[in-house]
Design a protein that fits this description.
By secondary structure, this protein is mostly beta strands. The protein has helices at residues 4-16, 241-246; strands at residues 40-48, 58-68, 71-74, 79-87, 90-93, 106-113, 116-125, 128-138, 144-151, 160-169, 174-180, 185-192, 197-204, 207-216, 219-226, 230-238, 249-250, 253-254, 260-264, 267-274.
Length: 275
């Protein structure tokens, strides 16, 4: 006969379901993956695979991304697009004054789940709204994203699709050598503050100059008067490893990652190299 003590223990185990094989694991909900940190300046190179014959089939997407938990965004003041082409016959960069729908800006909204970045880029204007969506995988150190994008036809532009590579851009503060298209050079000092305001000071043709502006992603837009080139708004595009492949030589100088193509409203005028 079982003792009352053993019988009581057996009944207690039965009522509470405390048997060793009852884990309840089938009802457990796993926590969502920790989102990768992507806040910062990003330069994305979008290469069309659907419309490679367009005048400007590729685009630089420059964005200063802000992040709260899984939510990521960049407003119109923190996003810019620069269409370009590159082939064996040369290259061209289009600095648009308005977006494809006739407006003046773009926005990015995205979510991060683990190492997956899912985004929507929108352009709005009097002609309608143009929307690009896609996903990218963030590498282990959070420095690079690779993925794809698609867009439906809108605002007179055809539907598109292609590949996307993003690179996290560090502060550009430092000393640089500018080699202009006429072969002349200038040493310039660049400072970028925490709000991505940029100041460039240097000497060209024996005269000092100062340019001021901002950094969005890997793009730098500054205004001022450079001797010989005059008062203008100048644009610099950071050369990622992918862009070095597309733009291997500028002004007869081999490029390297970290260089900038330097342009005015008239076109390419220089190569900027960190010293």
């Amino acid at each position: 006969m079982k003792s009352p003590l053993l019988l009581s223990a057996f009944i207690a185990l039965t009522l509470c379901g405390c048997g060793g094989n009852s884990s309840g694991g089938g009802n457990q909900t796993l926590p969502p993956p920790t989102p990768a940190a992507v806040a910062g300046k990003w330069e994305f190179v979008a290469v069309s695979t659907l419309n490679p014959g367009e005048a400007f089939p590729d685009t630089l997407v420059e964005a200063n991304l802000s992040q709260t938990d899984t939510m990521v965004s960049a407003g119109t003041a923190a996003t810019s697009l620069v269409p370009f082409y590159s082939n064996q016959g040369g290259y061209g960069v289009n600095l648009p004054v308005q977006n494809v729908c006739g407006g003046t800006g773009e926005t990015v909204s995205a979510t991060v789940s683990g190492q997956t970045f899912s985004f929507t880029l929108s352009e709005a204007g009097p002609n309608g709204t143009y929307t690009v969506t896609g996903t990218a995988t963030i590498n282990a150190n959070g420095q690079v994203m690779t993925g794809t994008y698609t867009s439906a036809a809108a605002c007179g532009f055809p539907n598109d699709a292609g590949n996307l590579t993003g690179t996290l851009i560090a502060s550009i503060s430092g000393t640089y050598l500018i080699t202009f298209s006429d072969g002349s050079t200038s040493t310039a000092t660049v400072t970028e503050d925490a709000n991505h305001n940029v100041t460039v000071t240097g000497i060209a043709q024996g005269q000092a100059y100062t340019l001021t502006g901002e950094a969005i992603g890997g793009g730098v837009t500054v205004s001022g008067d450079i001797p010989e080139f005059g008062q203008d708004t100048y644009y610099g595009a950071y050369l990622t490893s992918q862009l070095v492949t597309l733009f291997p030589v500028v002004n007869n100088i081999s490029t390297a990652q970290g260089d900038f193509i330097f342009l005015s409203s008239e076109g390419a005028i220089g190569l900027v190299q960190p010293q």
